[in-house]
Design a protein that fits this description.
alpha/beta, seven-stranded mixed beta sheet, globular
Length: 295
Amino acid sequence: MSDVSGYREKLCPVCGSRRYKVLYPDTLGKEIPEFGYDFGPKHNKTYRIVQCLDCTHGYASSAPAKLWENYEDVVDPSYLANAKERLITAAKALKRIRKYQNGGRLLDVGCSTGDFLQAAREFYDVEGLELSGWASKIARDKGLKIHSCLPDNLKADRQYDVVTLWGVIEHFGDPKYEVESICKLIKQGGLVCLWTGDVDSFPSRLLGKKWWWIQGQHIQFFTRKSLAKLMSDNGFGGVYFGMYPYVMSMQAIAKSLERYKALGIVRNILRHPSIKDISVEISLPGEMFAIFRKI
C-alpha cells in the first residue's frame, strides 16, 4: 500500500477530514465499473482509492456522484445459482440477530432477489428495498413486498425494528447521508445489521489490491473504527462484532477465485462433479458482521 499523503476537495465521507493517503490509483478513468459478480477482466478496475488519516475510512475518491443509478439496470443470472447457500447463510445470520430482536418489522436494504427475506419472514414482518428491476421482479414473484427506491425516498407508514444491509454499505455514494436516512426508518432500540469488508484487516494488507473486496463497484471501504464512528455519529451503539457466516458451494468458491489466475488448478478441483455441490461455511477474517442498536 502506498503512503502518499495529500489534500483534496472532496472530504472523507465519514469524518469530513481532508487528510488521506492513496491506497490504489485510478484504473477506471471515465468508465463505469462492472456490476454483478461474473469476475470478468474489468472487474478489478477501480476508481482511485484513498484512506482517511484521521478516522481510517477508505473510499473511492473519483467515483461518479450517482453511480447508484446503474443498479437499476443490473441483470445477473449467475447470482441465482447460489440461492440455496444464501438461504442457509440467512438462517445462520438470523440466529444471531434474534438474540437482540426476536420479531417485529424488518427491512432488507439491497435485498436483491429476496433470499434473506424468504428466511426472515418466518420470524419478522418483512419488506425489501431493491433498485434492480430484474431482481425486484424475482423477489416480488416470491410474494415479498419490495420498494424500488433509495432509503431517503422510502415512505414507510411505521418504523422498523430491524434494518439489514448485506454487502450493501460499501456501495453507498454518501454513507453518512444514507445512514442518517436509515436511522429515521428505525424505532428507538431497533437494530441495524450489516456485513462488509475491513480494509484494515490482515487479508487486506496482505493481498493489497487483490483483496476480494477491492472491486470497481465497491466505493466505500470501512474499518472497524470508521464503521463504529459512522454509526455512533448517527445515534447507534455497537452490540455485536463478528464474522459473517457465509455459506458457499465448492463451485461458487471456484467462481470467486477466478480473480486469482494462479489458482487455476484449485478452481478445477473445486469444480469436479464429485464435490462441486458440497457447501461449507466460510467465516473469513477481513469481513465484518456488525449489529448496532439505535440509542
